[in-house]
Design a protein that fits this description.
2 copies of one chain form a homodimer.
Chain A: E1 6-11, H1 17-28, E2 31-33, H2 37-45, H3 49-55, H4 78-96, E3 99-102, H5 106-109, E4 116-122, H6 125-135, H7 141-163, E5 175-178, H8 179-199
Helix pairs in contact in A: 1-8, 2-4, 6-7
Chain lengths: 201, 201
Amino acid sequence: MAENYVITIGREYGSGGREIAEKLAKSLGISFYDKNLINKVAEKTGYQVDILDKADEKAAHPLFSAYNIPPGLDVGTINDRLFSCQSSIIKELAQKESCVIVGRCADYVLRDMNNVLNVFIQAPMEARIARIMDRYLIDVPNIAKKEIQREDKIRRSYYQFYTDRKWGGNLGHHLVIDSSVLGVDGTVDLIRYMAGKRFGL
Amino acid sequence: MAENYVITIGREYGSGGREIAEKLAKSLGISFYDKNLINKVAEKTGYQVDILDKADEKAAHPLFSAYNIPPGLDVGTINDRLFSCQSSIIKELAQKESCVIVGRCADYVLRDMNNVLNVFIQAPMEARIARIMDRYLIDVPNIAKKEIQREDKIRRSYYQFYTDRKWGGNLGHHLVIDSSVLGVDGTVDLIRYMAGKRFGL
């Protein structure tokens, strides 16, 4: 049996990273994980999905620690518990199946595993503004821009809090690509090309 | 006649970036520019090649300004003169032929031109150490590592001095790739694949 491989995808907000990741998984015929990892965490911990959802991909805010911690769990913020449990699940999944994982510091979580390709998707601000305006039917570019900056800030502080690495296209990534050059489908093809060479697909 | 296109290649020291760039140019059948740009600058300015060579890809050191400035040229460090003249030559070349240009802030110099693909090559420190040890017959990994850190520092301060941008895989690059994943030839193929899609080759 061929070994499993994992493609992790980090992404700037509005770069189309999630859509690219989903199409990539589909075209390779492998599993796709992003927000849906929360359901597995909920099953395992007993937390409610909507509470986990608020903490998803966020570093702990001091106020979050006010949530009640279900009995039997270690004390810590819900964000920390989510990160820790999600990390275990990511490691288990990576052992048993090939998959694409979006965000969740998966590149860091799987840093000791072979057969991982770490990709980061970015795009110029104008392209991201256009994408977010289109997607959320926003009329004013500046509103989209503020939302992008806010979301990037949340992702950055989440990533840096749990990994001590710099967020964004950087060390630890094997490929960083500007999705505005080839578009969503062209970017999927490029990553697929690299994964094919890397994993002998 | 098809439009010209330019591929700029920035690179960490020891990542194999120059070799990748040269092979890429060869495989595309287009011109290759790196240190050889200095000869064109020498022709144009009357500076001696060996003096230009010392200033190549370096931000001005205060002592460099002690070099005599040939009559008729603006006052400024030789590094500034080199950068300015080299930038004009890069712009002229980009207008008249397709080419691959290594370093020299070419991504920044050509920022207003269409048909430019900006690539940055990086690699993990261990891979770079191995490459430099092999290339310069160095026996001690730490000596190679110090040389790498020193060269990166020079390139970083040169790039940041003239562009006000952060050096390294970052905004302004369309593709950042870790050359240790696919090796020199595999990395050439990947960039070629992307350039082919981008420029309709």
